[in-house]
Amino acid sequence: MFKKYFKTALRNLLRNRTFSVINVTGLAFALAAFWLIMLFVADELSYDRYHAKSDRIFRLVSHGKWDGGSFDITGTSGPMAAALKKDYPEIEATVRLDPTAGGLITYAQKHLRADDVFFADSNFFSVFSFPFLAGDPYSALLKPQSIVLTRKMAVRLFGTVDAALNKIVYFQNKQPEQVTGVVEDVPENSHFTFSAIRSFPADFNPDWSNFYLYTYGVLRDKKEGAALQEKLPGFVKKYLYSKGLDIKYDLELQPLTSIHLHSNVGYELGANRSMKFIYIFCIVALLILSVAVINYINITTARASVRLREIAVRKVIGSGRKDLVCLFLAESVTITIGATLLSALLAGAFMPVFNQLAGKSLQFWHFGPLQTVAALLLFAAVLGATGGLYPALFLSGFKPVPALKNQIGKQPLQALFRKTLVVFQFTITVVMIVATLVVYCQLRYMTHKDLGFDKNQVLTFRSDDENMRLKSKEFRNSLLADSRIEEVAFSGSPIGNNNIGMGSFNVETEDGAIDQNMTLAYGLAIDEHYIPTMRIRLLQGRNFNEAMLTDSNTLLVNAAFVKKTGWKNAIGKGIQMGRDASGKPVVKRIIGVTSDFHTYSLQHKIEPLVMHLPAGANEKTNVYVRVSRQDIAATTGFIGNVFRKFDAISPFEYNFLDRNFRKQYQSEEKQGKVLLLFTIVTIGIACLGLLGLITFTTAQRVKEIGIRKVLGASGIGLVRLLSTGLLKLVIIALVIAIPVAWLVMNKWLGDFAYRVHIRWWMFMVSGGVAFVIAGVTLSFQTIKAAIANPAKALRSE
Amino acid sequence: MIKITNLEKIYRTEEVETVALNDLSFQVKEGEFVAVMGPSGCGKSTLLNILGLLDDPDAGSFLFNGVEVAKFNERKRADMRKKNIGFVFQSFNLIDELTVFENVELPLMYAGVKKSERKARVDEVLEKVQIMHRRNHFPQQLSGGQQQRVAVARAVVNKPKLILADEPTGNLDSSNGNEVMQMLTDLNEAGTTIVMVTHSEHDARYSHRIIRMLDGHTVTENILV
């Protein structure tokens, strides 16, 4: 019986090719988009799950709060790991990571820069599962000065994996390390990645007051997590408050597998995403699919009158309603299976583009070929049954006698239902257009906003060689000898990479005393050329002058710092910068206030900033070169040559400052591009539905159009007559979409410290786009019908 | 086989009330061939729909083989219909997506007949109506006469006790029309009861008895045999 159903269904679809093509194509594109999003989501949800102990591993993060501020950071203090393991038997193991192990790696004449290198405890590879290609995971990091490389790093340094084992490499040209293992490259679905892991130095002995290490642990039983969390305040009391910590401090256990989508604290090891983003993607996938399913429902129910006689005959000769429902469900399942096959081809074809847009390396056969095919077919059947149920019940419900006479009636409820669905489709479409437009405007805003300094034409690179840092003045002068170099400056930390460290300071109050409450601020070491090179405005006071020896005891602050302290006049105020060797507080005086400028990307608010002169040559690690606009390639070549004269070994790897900032918006850019892609797909599918409806409506009204033409109706009048109904629905959709889009996008923009405001013209443009596209779609059929020969239409009747 | 008594059927719209059947009573015996005639709108088709259990009367009694079916629900009517009644329509009403064989096979499928038996019975009936050579063609590839032969084959394949024919020759030329009438006569002679609605005096003469209707009730009955 089922075979018969499918055979009949297939013939029916072939006989009505136009509608079948509309249904299959729309569904295929929607399903392709759906698969791609699902693969994306599956990949996001798979982060860190490849570790054998993933369900038992946790990360420890810190939350601090006091009157002057608060912090939420990944950093924990060094002794915590051992103390936790000692105090809590439910913890099987703990391991610490120190992210400051990167730098220049040298083997023979080969020098590579690698910043993604960690120091780690010796049990790192028994906690985390990284397959060893050479060496032993349990002993690789036992001895100090051991290093385990990834396959890629091993091949870069030694040519092959096998050649790497037991070789000696040097860090910063002076620290020898023996290669004791090679592991597979870190999978992309990891919340942190590395190219090498080094054992901690023999003299590594961190204290309780430095919160910069990453601490992970393994529970003996995954269910112990919640109970352990409850015990941590006691741990803090025992080890931290007892040592004089005078802020409210909490430790939080984060399950390893939830870090990527649920953690957003300071100093994350990679670009985490938000679960909100995953929900948005899933909703978009379902909306696209629903737009295509609505097409099927609308076209099938609209065409009911064509199927009436068949339905009646089947009923007359004995078919029950169940048989008819099965038949119509078979049709919808046939369509979804056809669409699924096509969607697999489309998804495969679009995969490279999607991967590029989303920054992923997704594979179509991610779940395995058999599982994928089974899942696709099952999904097609479920989708076909779900989407086909309403049309099946609707069509099978006609009474045979009026159906035999083609007396279907006007079906006002069904017509209203169809109209509602069209409105729903276009509401989704308009919301997606508005969303795309807002994302685009926000991206444009972020990349074009005045950052408080001139980020253009600034080339930046690291100075790894100590000798070069010591000769920074000569290096600067050599560069300035060329007229294409406008300015050169040095700083301790790079800006635009979102990783300047925050510090806490005790500041002088208006009455001259030092406030015992700490003020949290970024700290940045800059030389005297930094302010003019970056074209930062001085609001008050003066810039550093390195010729004045006393300037080493002076500071610049930004306007946000002054605002936070509430000073009326900042010049001359003191800030305590730690203590000297004898334990005496070191107070430095403010000599200038700059305007606020962004050191982090625009997702972050401008925070108070304290600038000081580098304490020594070693703090001049980042070089900023402002270049003229002429012949950039030759200029960078020149800078490279000068660099090589001062540092014969380190690779000259430079970036443009504006691109550094832009890199921080990659996630939003990817979101924007993916959203644009899916918006285009949604518009296309919604228009296919409109095309289907208007094609059918026009065909049904051929006689009416003929008579109207004979009676003198104009072509334009007929186009208006045929299009008005559907265009009205698009207008209703616009009205509904505006508040929905406003709410959704306002929420999205809420994540940005600096954001555009949603303007009325965005809705006008989005509505205009939807209206014009709908109008053009309708005009294909309406114009054709309006210019057709009326005699032909009337004769055929 | 059929006994209807004081049958009434009224169609109502918001403004108009149309009496289709008005106090109609008659009987059809098993093995009879009855023609129902009358002008358009006299209630012939309504009567046929009620006899075929496609529609229900507003009042009166309808005994089918001694069972009161006037108040049957849709499911019972469908069940009674597929076991006992075959239909032949003026416009053939074949399903375009199915081949000749599949069209004829359909009532057997709905009746739950096994595949092997279905094939034998469809082949037998297609032989009988001389359309076997076209068994794999689709309706649109056939002439009107051929299509009506397929429709007759479909109506009889389930061996119904009653065949209801609604102007079976209305869309056919005289030669094809005569062929179809001869087929119905043969079926009747083989024991099938036939009730036929027609406008054609010529076709009516194939029957045993003519019931003439006007404004929803019988006006005369002519016994021909």
UniProtKB/TrEMBL annotation, chain A:
InterPro entries: ABC3_permease_C, MacB_PCD, Macrolide_Exporter_MacB. It is found in: Cell membrane. Residues 20-231 form the MacB-like periplasmic core domain. One of its GO terms (cellular component) is plasma membrane. Residues 283-397, 677-789 form the ABC3 transporter permease C-terminal domain. The keyword Cell membrane applies. Keywords: Cell membrane, Membrane, Transmembrane, Transmembrane helix. GO terms for molecular function: transmembrane transporter activity. The chain crosses the membrane at residues 21-42, 277-299, 324-353, 373-395, 416-440, 674-696, 717-740, 760-780. It is a multi-pass membrane protein. PANTHER family: ABC-TYPE MACROLIDE FAMILY EXPORT SYSTEM PERMEASE COMPONENT 2, MEMBRANE COMPONENT OF TRANSPORTER-RELATED. This is Putative ABC transport system permease protein. It comes from Niabella drilacis (strain DSM 25811 / CCM 8410 / CCUG 62505 / LMG 26954 / E90). The lineage of its organism: Bacteria, Pseudomonadati, Bacteroidota, Chitinophagia, Chitinophagales.
Automatic annotation (TrEMBL), chain B:
It comes from Niabella drilacis (strain DSM 25811 / CCM 8410 / CCUG 62505 / LMG 26954 / E90). GO terms for molecular function: ATP binding; ATP hydrolysis activity; transmembrane transporter activity. Belongs to the ABC transporter superfamily. Macrolide exporter (TC 3.A.1.122) family. It comes from the Bacteria. This is Putative ABC transport system ATP-binding protein. It holds the Pfam family ABC_tran. The keyword Transport applies. GO terms for cellular component: membrane protein complex; plasma membrane. PROSITE patterns: ABC_TRANSPORTER_1, ABC_TRANSPORTER_2. The keyword Membrane does not apply.
